[in-house]
Amino acid sequence: MASLKPNALRVGLFGAGRVAAALAPALAAAGHHLAFVASRAPGPAQALAAALPGCPALPLATALASPPPADVYLLAVPDAAVPEVVTAGNWPAGALLAHVAGALPLAVFAAQPLVRGGVLYPLQTFSPGRRIEWPTVPLFVEAAEPTTEAILLALARSLSQRVALLDSAQRLHLHLGAVWASNFTNHLLGVAQALLAEARLSFDLLHPLVRETVDKALAAQPSPFGVQTGPAVRRDAPTLAAHETALAAHPAWQALYGQLTASIQAAATPAG
Questions:
Q1: Using an 8 Å Cβ cutoff, are 99 and 171 in contact?
Q2: 158 Cβ partners below 8 Å, 6+ apart?
Q3: Which of 10, 61, 158, 233 is most exposed, with minimal Cβ within 10 Å?
């Protein structure tokens, strides 16, 4: 391996899924060295490692039994697997482990008192084939010990221009908000596409509306609630009834329509 650049780190990466696949090339581009990629599934790990100079792909069990030397071990595995990876690892004393999850507390590392635990949480959605502009991605760091915090802050700042400290409780609320803003919104757009497809209408028809809705909500002060439009906030009973009737073939979506209508009416101020 070539000598590392000043302030560069050796990073051991556990996981080869969406977050890991986005993080690994970004870390390499920032001058860090990927010491290894470890995953239960050999194919994704091998594919990811092949694009990283001098980076081997390892079976997860092998990497946990004898972790190759690294300055930071990043745990980019599914949230439910993080406690297992933490407890199963034969970590060197003082090893720095950091998970990348929004909803997992720092306390997940308490099971391994000889390691230094931390968090490096990227607030972004990751999908294959989608380019991530890392300098704009908010990255949040948490650690109980100052040296660990300093290392993770430096690592985060090598990737992003938006780096901050956040404790576990704040990060959980941020993650919850992100699920509403991203995951639930995406699901609702999927419902909209399916309903249009039933009428042989193109989803493209909604694109200008969706863009204006998001742009307006992001610009709204003090809250997107204040720019709410539509039949729910207008309490347009005939239209609401017609919509619910049209959803009769989809009882789950019909129930969701009613719940969202009630929530809008409880929270929003009419905007016209």
A1: no
A2: 7, 30, 31, 32
A3: 61
Give pLDDT, residue 6.
60
Q: What does the pLDDT look like over 190-200, one tens digit per residue?
A: 999 999 999 99
Q: How many helices (H) and strands (E) does the chain have?
A: 11, 8
List, in order, residues 6 or more apart from 175 with CB less than 8 Å away. Answer: 102, 103, 121
Instruction: Please give the CATH architecture assigned to the domain spanning 172-267.
Output: Orthogonal Bundle (1.10)
CA 53, chain centre distance (Å): 26
pTM of structure: 0.93
Return the CATH number of 10-166, one of 3.30.70.100, 3.30.1330.60, 3.40.30.10, 3.40.50.720. Answer: 3.40.50.720
In which band, very low, low, confident or very high, does the pLDDT at 3 lie, cut at 50, 70 and 90? very low
